[in-house]
Amino acid sequence: MKKIIFLDIDGTLVDFQKEMPESSKRALALAKDKGCYIALCTGRAIPDIYPFLLDFHFDGIVASAGAYITCGNDKIFHNVLDKDKLELLSNVLTQHNAAYMFQGVNGRCFNELSRIKMEKVFLSLGISNLDFMKNMTLCENPFQMEHIESGVYFDADGDIEAIQEAVDPYFKITGSSFSANRAYNGEITCKGIDKATGMQKLMSYMNIPRECCVAIGDGPNDVEMLQYAQIGVAMGNADDSIKSIADMVTDSIDEDGIYNAFCKLHLI
User: What residues make up the domain containing 109?
Assistant: First the structure.
């Protein structure tokens, strides 16, 4: 039976300078040639996935941490967040002095106050204004954007636990996957929908059993993904908490982590 390999993007396939190691590109091509299915499994919404990654023509994509799933050209699942609950969430984030944005198939949306705060955060990560504003819509009430699937926030004055306690239990708050200060930066998803549920839906559609599944990731939103996979692999640059729940730890992204994991698992 063919294996299916689920791959996170930030910190796994692509580093924080938006570079994908040549060894990772080689690993994907070799695994594909050997007959493996390759799928993205990311917190990013579809419009926010790097175009150079999409050129690889993945067999499936689990986007927005499980809220939007495609198999080839087929959309097989799409969960949209409730606008009334998003409005209440916006109030909580504002009360906690957080900058935030919502995202979905129509791109990303934020207000002017969040734009000012987030611009500083992204610039500190080496992301230019041009890249920062790509697929972004500026509006007074971001929760009114159509087809919102998930969101992110930055620099809250409370930690993840405090924000989770304050918001409607409809939402799940997870530490950010692309920021060093994860305690006060978070990702917002619908409770009950995550990367693992997305993997299940895609594998069911493709008729692939769980025992044929490998997943590789590095961040807090990868926990369910690594636990669900038959073999869950943590990158060497992952937090210790992520490594502790993985079946295997590979090297870091800048030390050929993807390629070395594929070799050890005989995927290439």
Answer: 83-190
